[in-house]
C-alpha cells in the first residue's frame, strides 16, 4: 500500500494507496488496464492543510487516461462526504496539488475494476415507509469483497428518520479506511455526511428530513458478519418553518433554510455565506449548508458542562451587497451535552428563536489491540485470552474536530452484557481501581489503557467491559479531562463536558476454548462410551489447569459447586 513517490502508473486489477505529500506537490496517478471494465476509486481518508481552499489544494479526478480527460469530481478540505468516483471506461487519472503551507498531508484511497450491472453489483435497495429493516449482503455470514451498496430510505413527509444498527461488525482500522458504513442526511451521497463507522459498535443516526442514504463499502482484506439495521420515523418537531432545520453530528453541521423562511426575512437565497466566505450552500432549493463540524469558521466554546459550536450565516436583501450588520445574520448553534445535542437556530432580525431539541451523540467506539503500539485491532469476537494476559484497550472518538480530548472516566467489568448488580471496577472517576491498570497519555481523539485479564474470568464464562468516556476541548486546561483522578470527596463538584459510554466484549479464557474444541472433537462413538460427558470435560479441564496453577483449580471447583457452597463474587475477590 505504500506510495513513496509522487504519482505513478497503475495497472493492477485493484490496489490500496497510502499517500503522504508535503508542500507544493503536483502529482498525477494514472490507472489503466486492458479490460472491458470500469474503475471505482474511493478516497476513504484525506487530510489537507488546515483551512486550505479548493483553488490551492485539492484532488481532481479525470474520466480517462490523462488530466485532459473530462473532470469527474474534485475533493477538497471541506468535502463533506466519502468521495466515490467511477470511470466510464478502463482508465482514470487523479491529480493531487498542495499549497505552500508546511504541513504533512495524508490520503488513503483504493480502487478496483468492476463490471457495472453484474450480479456482484446487485446490493442495496430503495426503502419506503415509516419503518423498515435491512442488512449487509450475506448477513450474518461474512460480507463479500469489493462491494459498494447503497440504501435510499424515504419516510413519510414531515418526518425524520432514526436509524439504529442492531448488530454491527466491520473490519476495524483507525480512520475507517478499509471497510466502512457511511450515512448521509438526504437522498444522495452529496447530501451531507452524518457519520462514517467501522469496527464493532451499535451506532445510531438521525436525519433532518424524511430522506436518508446509507452506504456500505468493502475492500478485499478481511470480511466479518456486517450489520443488521432498522429505521423508524418520527414527526418533525414544531413549531418550525417547513424544511428549516439544523442538524449536528459528531462529524458535521447541516443547516437547511426554506425559501419561504428566507423570504419572510426579506432575503434572497443567492446571497448567503458562513463565517468563512468560501463556504457556500451545497443546494439552493431549499438552501442547504453542510460542512465538517470544525470548519468554515465555526467557533467552538467549552462551557464546562457542554461544548458549543456556532456559525453565522450572512444574508443580504436581494440585489444589495453582502454586509455583516447585526440585522442580517442567522446564527446556528450546536450544543453537545450529556448524551444529547441541543440545536438552536435564530435570526437577529426578528428575535424569534426556533429550537430543535434532538437526541444526538458523538460517535465513540472501543476495541482491543494486540500490543501497546495500538496498530492491530483484535478483529474477532469473543476475544479469547490467557489469565493474567495484558490486554490493550482503546476508545476512539470519530469526529472531524481535531481539538477534542478523550478521557476515560470509569471502566467496569461484568459477566452480564446489561451490567447488572455484579460488577468489577477497573477505573472509577479517573482513578485506577485495579492494580494492573495503566492509562496512557491522551493521544489525538483516543483514550488508551491496559490491564491484565483478572480473576473475575475464573468464575464466569464471559466478561464484558463498559467504559464511561468524557470528551473535552483539548485547549481547556480546567476541563474534567485535565483534572484526572478525582477522589470521592471532590467528585460532586467536578462537572464534565460531555459524557457517554461504550461497551466491548465478550472476553473469554483460552482454556474454555480448548475445552470446547476438545468436546467437539469427540466422535459419536466416543460420546456413547462416556457415561457423563459434562463430568468428563470438567475433570479434564481441572487436570490441565492443575499443572499450571493450583489456585485456578480451586476457583473452577468452587464454580462447579457454587450452588452448594453459597459461592459469591466476594469469594472470587478474596481467592
Automatic annotation (TrEMBL):
Domain of life the protein comes from: Eukaryota
PROSITE patterns: CUB (PS01180), ZP_2 (PS51034)
Compartments in which it is found: Cytoplasmic vesicle, Secretory vesicle
Keywords: Cytoplasmic vesicle, Disulfide bond, Glycoprotein, Membrane, Signal, Transmembrane, Transmembrane helix
Transmembrane spans: 538-558
Protein name in the entry: CUZD1 protein
Every ZP domain range: 247-488
Gene: Cuzd1_1
PANTHER family found in the cross-reference section: CUB AND ZONA PELLUCIDA-LIKE DOMAIN-CONTAINING PROTEIN 1 (PTHR14002:SF27), ENDOGLIN/TGF-BETA RECEPTOR TYPE III (PTHR14002)
Source species of the chain: Chaetops frenatus
UniProt main location, coarse: cytoplasm
Range of residues in the leader sequence: none
Amino acid at each position: 500500500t505504500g506510495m513513496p513517490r509522487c504519482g505513478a502508473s497503475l495497472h493492477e486489477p485493484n490496489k490500496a494507496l497510502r499517500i503522504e505529500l508535503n508542500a507544493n506537490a503536483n502529482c498525477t496517478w494514472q490507472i489503466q488496464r486492458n479490460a472491458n471494465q470500469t474503475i471505482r476509486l474511493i478516497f476513504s481518508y484525506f487530510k489537507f492543510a488546515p483551512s486550505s481552499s479548493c483553488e490551492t489544494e485539492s484532488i481532481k479526478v479525470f474520466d480517462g487516461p490523462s488530466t485532459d480527460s473530462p473532470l469527474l469530481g474534485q475533493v477538497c478540505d471541506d468535502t463533506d462526504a466519502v468521495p466515490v468516483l467511477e470511470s466510464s471506461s478502463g482508465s482514470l487519472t487523479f491529480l493531487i496539488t498542495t499549497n505552500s503551507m508546511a504541513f504533512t498531508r495524508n490520503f488513503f484511497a483504493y480502487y478496483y475494476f468492476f463490471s457495472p450491472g453484474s450480479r456482484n453489483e446487485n446490493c442495496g435497495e430503495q426503502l419506503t415507509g415509516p419503518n423498515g429493516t435491512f442488512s449487509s449482503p450475506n448477513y450474518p455470514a461474512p460480507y463479500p469483497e469489493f462491494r459498494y451498496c447503497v440504501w435510499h430510505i424515504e419516510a413519510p413527509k414531515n418526518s425524520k428518520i432514526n436509524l439504529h444498527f442492531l448488530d454491527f461488525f466491520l473490519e476495524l482500522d483507525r480512520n475507517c479506511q478499509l471497510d466502512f458504513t457511511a450515512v448521509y442526511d438526504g437522498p444522495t451521497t452529496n447530501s451531507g455526511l452524518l457519520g462514517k463507522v467501522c469496527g464493532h459498535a451499535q451506532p445510531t443516526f438521525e436525519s433532518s428530513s424524511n430522506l436518508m442514504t446509507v452506504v456500505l463499502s468493502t475492500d478485499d482484506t478481511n470480511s466479518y458478519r456486517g450489520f443488521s439495521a432498522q429505521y423508524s420515523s418520527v414527526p418533525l418537531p414544531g413549531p418550525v418553518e417547513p424544511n428549516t432545520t439544523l442538524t449536528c453530528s459528531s462529524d458535521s453541521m447541516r443547516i437547511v433554510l426554506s425559501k419561504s423562511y428566507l423570504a419572510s426575512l426579506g432575503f434572497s437565497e443567492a446571497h448567503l455565506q458562513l463565517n468563512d466566505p468560501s463556504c457556500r450552500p451545497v443546494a439552493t432549493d431549499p438552501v442547504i449548508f453542510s460542512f465538517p463540524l470544525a470548519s468554515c469558521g465555526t467557533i467552538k466554546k467549552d462551557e464546562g458542562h457542554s461544548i458549543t459550536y456556532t456559525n453565522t450565516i450572512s444574508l443580504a436583501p436581494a440585489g444589495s451587497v453582502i454586509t455583516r450588520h447585526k440585522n442580517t445574520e442567522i446564527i446556528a448553534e450546536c450544543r453537545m451535552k450529556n448524551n444529547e445535542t441541543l440545536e438552536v437556530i435564530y435570526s437577529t432580525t426578528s428575535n424569534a428563536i426556533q429550537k430543535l431539541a434532538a437526541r444526538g451523540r458523538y460517535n465513540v467506539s472501543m476495541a482491543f489491540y494486540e500490543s501497546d503500539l495500538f496498530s492491530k485491532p483484535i478483529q474477532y469476537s469473543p476475544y479469547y485470552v490467557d489469565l493474567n494476559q495484558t490486554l490493550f484497550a482503546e476508545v476512539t472518538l470519530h469526529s472531524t474536530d481535531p481539538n477534542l480530548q478523550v478521557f476515560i472516566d470509569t471502566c467496569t467489568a461484568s459477566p452480564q452484557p446489561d451490567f447488572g448488580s455484579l460488577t468489577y471496577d477497573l477505573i472509577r472517576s479517573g482513578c485506577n481501581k485495579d492494580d494492573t491498570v495503566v492509562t496512557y497519555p491522551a493521544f489525538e481523539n483516543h483514550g488508551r489503557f491496559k490491564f491484565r485479564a483478572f480473576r473475575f474470568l475464573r468464575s464466569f464464562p464471559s466478561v464484558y467491559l463498559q467504559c464511561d468516556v468524557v470528551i473535552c476541548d483539548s485547549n481547556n486546561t480546567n476541563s474534567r479531562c485535565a483534572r484526572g483522578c478525582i477522589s470521592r470527596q471532590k467528585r460532586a463538584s467536578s462537572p464534565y463536558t460531555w459524557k457517554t459510554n461504550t461497551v466491548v466484549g465478550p472476553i473469554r479464557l483460552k482454556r474454555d476454548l480448548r475445552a470446547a474444541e476438545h468436546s467437539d472433537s469427540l466422535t459419536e462413538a466416543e460420546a456413547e462410551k462416556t457415561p457423563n460427558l459434562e463430568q468428563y470435560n470438567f475433570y479434564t479441564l481441572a487436570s490441565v489447569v492443575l499443572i499450571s496453577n493450583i489456585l485456578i483449580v480451586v476457583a473452577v471447583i468452587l464454580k462447579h459447586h457454587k450452588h452448594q457452597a453459597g459461592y459469591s463474587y466476594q469469594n472470587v475477590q478474596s481467592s
